[in-house]
Amino acid sequence: MKNLLKAIQIPLFLMLSLTFIYAANTNCPEALQGRWEQLGSRSVKFGMDRDEILVTAKEGFFTGLKIRVTNSALNMHKMVIHFGDGTTQDVELKNNFKAGQESRVIDLAGNRRVITKVVFWYDTKNARQTKAVVELWGKH
Asked: What is the pTM of this model?
């Protein structure tokens, strides 16, 4: 009997481990997959410009980012994410955002990372004379 118990311990452990790993990676409610936090926002000028949003280490580690544009349209060219270890990640966006739109989720290289700042390059052709607002959101 003892030999039988020892023989099934390892396969049972492996089966339970694989079940847990599979369940953790399936479609779960968003609340279980990390929370979103607004890291900052900028009211953008008309024409071609560049802006930075500073993020501090106290805000924690992040696995992804997204951009939300409000108030007016904006043509986003690219963004550069600066990490706590001094490395950067270039993200080519080339998106025309309408007011109220947001970007796809941008996965961070290396998964859980401390972000020090994010730099945006964009332009606006605003006929309504309403400044767009760019919001940066981070996923924990």
From this structure: 0.72
